[in-house]
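To whoever picks this up:

The parser on our side crashed when reading a file containing two proteins. I've narrowed it down to the boundary between the first structure block and the second sequence. Both blocks are reproduced below exactly, byte for byte. First block:
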Amino acid sequence: MSTIPSSHLRLTTVDTETTVRIELLGDLDYDNADLLLEAVTAKLAAHPRLRELHLGCAGLGSVDSTGLSVLLMIRRRTDAAKVLLYLQDRVLALDRLLTITGSLDYLTALPTGAARETSGPGESRADTEEAIPARPTGPDSSA
């Protein structure tokens, strides 16, 4: 376990071979959001067998647009590395920001195909298949 101090954001990490958990305590904003991005980038590089990255958000204070941008960048990097990202213990303010900006589903959903990969043998995969969009059938439909 290691702690990365900052004046407004403290990161505490716990690593295993396939999982990293980073607890955030403080503000994720313009002044220090890069600290989180650097920590995540270093963990992705140092753990080639990493499968899950958990960000513990219970101690998170304010999140500004730079903090949101860093979370979105982390999602892109974890997707590229085939690492599942989990934003855990989200505070209400973070959920509100993610909802207002339309990024809640993107940051909290599993990447396409991840549910299929995690299904074990003999498990029902009906709920992991991609949905087929419904066509309108009412009087105003063009079909």
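<<boundary where parser fails>>
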Amino acid sequence: MDETAAKRLVFAMLDADGDGVISKAEYSARVERVTLATGRTDDDPLVIAARANGARAWAAMDADGDGGVTFDEYAAWAGAEAFDTVCEPVLGGLFDLADTDGTAPWT
């Protein structure tokens, strides 16, 4: 799979309603779904951290600040640097939320 195809795949996963724009609500829904599924509360430090990491990622992705991320905007942002500095903490936070017994090998 080439880089553009990989970006399109990730974009499609984030664009839950398929309208061609990732909304802030769509992006934030991942944390909310994991929080709900694991029974964590809003004041759980892992929930707070995951939301904060997500907010930083959203701000970086939504370069023009219009509240939506198009594929072109996403493609321009996504890459190795974005993964290392923004995505890795977001994904780590999601994994931490899902690790309800604290035994995950990534911690």
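After patching the parser it read the second block fine. Residues 80-98 form the longest helix (19 residues). The CA atoms of residues 50 and 92 lie 8 Å apart.
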